[in-house]
Structure formats: C-alpha cells, structure tokens
Write a structure and sequence with these properties.
The protein is of the alpha/beta class. The protein contains 13 helices and eight strands. Helices cover about 50% and strands about 10% of the residues.
C-alpha cells in the first residue's frame, strides 16, 4: 500500500457534499494539469530524462513554483534510480505520493471541521492580506462556519483605511447574524481591535475575527501597524492573536507567492487561506506556497457560496486533484 493510501485510509473523511464541491472547485486545475501530463508521456513507456524534463515544465506552469517543483522532481528521480524501471503508467500514483509527502511536512491534514482549541477563550484570529484577495468574504464565511458549529462569534473591522471594507464587513455580519465592532473610517486600527476584544470578553464570545488593512505600498508602516494591533490586543487578552491568517488569491498564481513573501516579512503569519481556486487552473499554488513558506494551509475557497470555504485537508485535496 502506498504512503498516500496508507495514511488516507485512516483519515476522517469530509461529507459527500463537501467532497463534490472540492472536486468541482479543482476541476480546472486538474484538467489543465493532466492534459499537459498526457501529452508529456505520449508514446513513452518508462519515466526517463525527457519525461522528467517535461514534468518539471508542467509543474512550474501549474504554479507549483520552481523550488517545490525541483524538490518533487528530485524525489521522483530517486525513485527512478531505486526502481531502475519505472513505467509512465505509475507516474500518476508517484506524483500523488510525493505531493502528499510534501504537504505532510507542513499540514497536519486530519482536520475536516471548523473547530477551535479547547480551553482557549476567546480564540482570536487576526486576518491579513492585500485588498481584492477575498479577505472580507473569507471572514464572513469563517464567521458563518464557526457559528454553525455553535460558537459565539464577534467580528472587528480594524481595516479603517477603506470605508468599503467596513461596509462590506457589516453586510457579512448582518448576513451571518453576528455582532460587528467598528469605528469611523480613519480611526486607529488598534483602537478597534481593543474595543473588539473588550466587547468579546463582555459577551463571553468563543471566537473573535479581526480584519486588518490590506495595503502593501509601505512594508514598514504595515509592520508597525500590525505590531501595534497585536500589542494593544494583548492588553485585553494575553497571548493574542492565537492565529494570524494570511488570505491569498489562488487565481493569481505566482503573485500569491509574492504576497506571502511580503506579509511573512511584515508580520508573523501562522496559517494560510487560499481563495478562488474554483475559477482558475492554478490550484498547484497551494502545494508550492505551503512547501516554500512552511506555513500550514488552514482553509481553501472552492466556490462563491457561503458553504464553499473548506477546512484544508491535504489528503482530500490530493485525492480530488488526482481523481
């Protein structure tokens, strides 16, 4: 039994409906990847240098990233050397195994539900990411999922740079039915974060989700602002935020790598959410970003519906990608 099958068989499965959404969300990425792979191995019976060169090109063009691609190719080369003769019909399973192995180094993989650690209350998420990546939508969907699990949720509109950010978050708060703490546009973001945590503690909330500004034109200012927000929150609740979640737009491919690079330089990012995977053939970006930044992917967006933000389960992801 392969590494993938051995591990996957013991994992908790997501629901049939979630799996169907994931399969559909990754359809463009899968179709693009395998059409290229089929052409690359046409007329070939074994994995040789030419097949590996073509595979390298396919992985890079699928936005897996150069460094992660080279890592995958090296692992396959090692298996070719060990097995002496490796047929192209086995390449699908080998890729599946190696990509699962790579993702295993960063992501725990077993989560299927929106849960928070026990004995942490309130659990505070600080959301970071550039404008336009689906940050506000992700916050709204997260609030919905946590509320569905029975948690009491409070939102904080600390992106005070744009009036639209506050308005959009209010729309989501109303839609989900959770309170939003906000101030006027141009207010001190740290002040909003402080008020949000005070309100959450007073309401005995379980989960606090705080939006932050998404501008990157001055990394030093961004770093200072996020550091201040963290410092002020800790005056209300020690050791917060519990999670700094970076939201990335999967449809931008290599651009998402650059955003991750900028934000990880500006603040400590502890987890990732990759959105808009359903509208793109660039699903490979999840593999590359997870590997290169050694930060776990916690959530993925695979559709526009309120239920279409899923907890990232690497085994289900790879299964859908190679199905």
């Amino acid at each position: 039994m392969s590494f993938f099958k051995r591990i996957f068989s013991s994992e908790k499965k997501i629901t049939e409906e979630q799996k169907e959404t994931l399969d559909k969300g990754l359809e463009k990425s899968k179709t693009s990847f395998f059409s290229k792979l089929t052409k690359a191995i046409a007329g070939k019976s074994k994995v040789d240098d030419e097949v590996l060169d073509n595979l390298e090109e396919i992985l890079v063009s699928s936005d897996v990233g150069v460094n992660t691609t080279l890592k995958i190719i090296e692992r396959i080369e090692k298996r070719v050397a060990e097995d002496k003769y490796l047929g192209t019909d086995e390449l699908n399973q080998i890729l599946r195994d190696e990509i699962s192995g790579l993702l295993s180094e960063t992501n725990s993989g077993e989560a299927t539900e929106f849960v928070i650690p026990v004995n942490v209350k309130p659990y505070v998420l600080m959301i970071v990411g550039v404008n336009g990546v689906g940050k506000t939508t992700t916050i709204g969907k997260l609030a919905h999922q946590f509320k569905k699990q029975g948690y009491k949720v409070v939102l904080g509109a600390a992106d005070t740079f744009r009036a639209a950010a506050i308005d959009q978050l209010q729309v989501w708060a109303d839609r989900v039915g959770v309170p939003l703490v906000k101030q006027q546009m141009g207010s001190d973001p740290a002040s909003v974060a402080f008020d949000t945590l005070q309100s959450a503690v007073a309401q005995n909330a379980d989960v606090v989700i705080i939006d932050t500004a998404g501008r990157l034109h001055n990394k030093t200012n961004l770093m200072n602002e996020l550091t201040k927000v963290k410092r002020v929150m800790q005056k209300v609740v020690e050791n917060t935020p519990n999670d700094v979640l970076l939201v990335l737009d999967g449809s931008t491919g290599q651009n998402a790598f650059e955003q991750a690079k900028q934000f990880t330089a500006a603040t400590e990012v502890t987890s990732l959410a990759v959105t808009k995977l359903d509208g793109t053939a660039k699903g490979g970006v999840v593999i590359g970003i997870s590997d290169q930044f050694q930060i776990p992917v916690k959530y993925i967006g695979v559709g526009e519906g309120i239920e279409d933000l899923q907890v990232f389960n690497k085994y289900e992801f790879v299964d859908s990608f190679f199905k």
